Amino acid sequence: MTTISEPGTSAGYGAFISYNHADRARARWLHRALERYRIPAKLVGREAAFGPVPRRLGRIFRDLDELSAASDLSAEVRAALAESACLIVVCTPAGAASQWVAREIALFRELHPDRPVLAALFQGEPAEALPLPLRRTADGAETEPLAADFREGRDGKRLALLKLVAGAVGVPLDALVQRDAQARVRRVTAVTALAILLLLAMAGLTILAVRARGEAEARRAQAEGLVEFMLTDLRGRLKEVGRLDVLREANARALRYYGEQDLATLPPDVLARRARAIMTMGEDAMEAKETARARAAFLQANRITHALIEREPNQYDIVFAHAQSEFYLGLLHFKAGELAATEPHFEAYAALAHRLMAIDPADARSAEEISYSATNLCALRMEQHTADRTVALCGEALRAAETLARREPNSDQRWREVANRQGWLSDAYIVVGDLDAVLALRRKQVELLERLYSRESRNVRTQRMLIWAERALAEVEYRRGNFSTAVRQMRKAVADLRKLTELDTKNQELADRLKEMDEALIKMERRAK
User: Fold this and answer.
1) What is 116-175 written as a DSSP string?
2) Starting from the edge strand earliest in sequence, which strands make up the sheet with 87-91, in order?
3) What average pLDDT does the structure give for the chain?
4) How far apart are CA 315 and CA 269, in angstroms?
5) How far apart are alpha carbons 340 and 227 in whole angstroms?
6) If phi over 0 gives left and psi between -120 and 50 gives alpha, with beta otherwise, what is residue 170?
7) What is the 3-state secondary structure (H, E, C) of 87-108?
8) Is the pLDDT of residue 65 over 70?
9) How far is CA 298 from CA 306, 317, 325, 365, in A?
10) What residue spans of 312-434 are helical by DSSP H?
11) I want to staple 71 with a disulfide (CB 3.0 to 4.6 A). Which of 299, 387, 431, 513 is the partner?
12) CB neighbours (10 Å) of residue 411?
């Protein structure tokens, strides 16, 4: 795979995206946009500031872990910084306040003083959104770097994205904008022509379907297939070239077409296809923050799936479709802060997830839907301040994670998810004061993580999870009065953390955490005597 690299260097990643996890949605969008972007063919291979221009930026690194749960930058993140050709910082007030973003900037500059550090401004004014290291040079002088401005009414998403690509590759922005515009015109022309042809074809097929009952079913199936294509494959292409006007028109026509149908006369497969298409429209509207249009689409999809499930209450795909429509209606209410209106939809989603499990427990979607629905209800109960119900829901999420892990016994990621949910359930039990349950869960969590770590001792993520689980277990053992056991467990946690710090001697935060755990161990040892 071609990646950006400076002359004489080899970069495993075309870019490293640094962001505060409050901005994860922006970082995820930026990640996809950068990896999908194709540099215009006329620029590929030309000599630029950082070597020959590649066809694509290559792999983009975006940390998926919650760094707030770790003591410092992980070895995985530090290695990715060392292997990245440039650093892109998602700039918002939350990002400017993040110690992790600041550390990533400082470390990248230390490792690569000559590689570009680019600012992607999404929210706030530069003075409050740009992290302090970006507003100062290496020698500490104040500066105001140029930023790709994604804010509404400024550069716009496309131009801001091109600014980042130009800075990363090392080509003049004007050259990239000109070539990109030419390529986009060609793509827009082709995709728009295809969209218009498909709209005409759908209209023609619909007219023909009315003429004869014998021909109607075949023609309608073809029209439905065209509509589904428009709202899936073509939808992605229209979004890629920015023709949201054509996308909205296609969505509106399809919505009117579906709204005129007599649901009682249609076969289940046609109804299911329509529900999928309409939910796709709702997702587009929700992404565009057009709440009224999203609500109209999800209500219509729910009307269809409700009619479906009344006719076929135990057909797996129909139950699955109705579960999704209930989820989306609940999500709209939840985002609006309408908790009372959210509850019946989330409860219905959970009941349908359990029905999926009863119909086909072997399908992986069954356990996944139970896990998702339990998580949604857990979030809702926490907003409603009902801690006792939260314990039950977190327990349900844990059992679903265990089911998935047993189906994929060699997947360390599945088992790490189990360990995470054990920790969540432990915290829920602490809230209700059940220390016996906390102790049992923490022991199981440590045992599971030790087994995972023994299989791959170089996995830093598992090692870090194990250390924090060991400390949590030591603390609950201590609270239960098992002082000698607590001391042994804390000594092991301290020893494991010391090994980790020895691999990263410059990591001050890790050293501070080790000092803190040493002090906690001394207190435990004094009490155990």
Assistant:
1) -EEEEE-SS-HHHHS-GGGGB-TTS-B----EEE-STTTT-HHHHHHHHHHHHHT--HHH
2) 60-62, 15-18, 87-91, 117-121, 147-149
3) 81
4) 11
5) 36
6) left
7) EEEEECHHHHCCHHHHHHHHHH
8) no
9) 12, 18, 6, 21
10) 316-335, 339-359, 364-383, 387-407, 412-432
11) 513
12) 12
Assigned token pair, 478 = 């201590």
Q: How far apart are CA 436 and CA 281, in angstroms?
A: 49
What is the three-state SS of 24-35?
HHHHHHHHHHHH
First-to-final CA distance of the chain: 61
Distances (CA, A) of 341 to 332, 378, 386, 503: 10, 16, 17, 52
Residue 218: Cβ within 10 Å count: 12
Provide the token pair at 479: 């609270």
Token pair, residue 56, equals: 């694509």
**Measured between alpha carbons, how far is 298 from 179 in angstroms, rounded to an integer?**
40
Could you give the CA distance from residue 116 to residue 163 in angstroms, rounded to a whole number? 12
What sign results for the dihedral spanned by CA atoms 275, 280, 284, 289?
positive
Residues 6+ apart with CB under 8 A from 109: 117, 133, 138
Q: Mark 153-169 as b/e (b = at least 16 C-beta within 10 Å).
A: eebeeeebbbbbbbbbb
Report which residue type is found at 4: I
Neighbours of 506 (CB within 10 A): 11
Contacts by 491-496, CB closer than 8 A, 24 or more apart:
491/521, 493/467, 493/517, 494/518, 494/521, 496/463, 496/466, 496/467, 496/470
Token code pair at residue 451 = 């087994």
Q: Which position has the token pair 């080509």?
A: 171
Q: Which has more pLDDT, 33 or 236?
A: 33
For residues 436-474, b (16+ Cβ closer than 10 Å) or e, as one string? ebbbebbbbbbebbeebbeeeeebbbbbbbbbbbbbbbb
- What does the radius of gyration of the chain's CA atoms come to, in whole angstroms? 27
The answer to whether the CB of 313 falls within 8 A of the CB of 298 is no
Give the span between the Cα atoms of 77 and 168, in whole angstroms: 20
pLDDT of residue 62: 86
81 vs 151: CA distance, rounded Å: 27
d(CA 488, CA 491): 5
Instruction: Give the CA count within 13 Å in the CB-facing half-sphere of 269.
Output: 5
Q: Which residue has the tokens 């009065």?
A: 481
Contacts 24+ apart (CB under 8 A), 143-147: 145/117, 145/119, 146/119, 147/91, 147/119, 147/120, 147/121
Residue 123 confidence (pLDDT)? 93
Select, from the ranges 56-65, 115-124, 304-313, 408-417, the one with the highest average predicted confidence (pLDDT): 115-124
Euclidean distance between CA atoms 124 and 191, whole angstroms: 36
Enter the tokens of residue 519.
């002090």
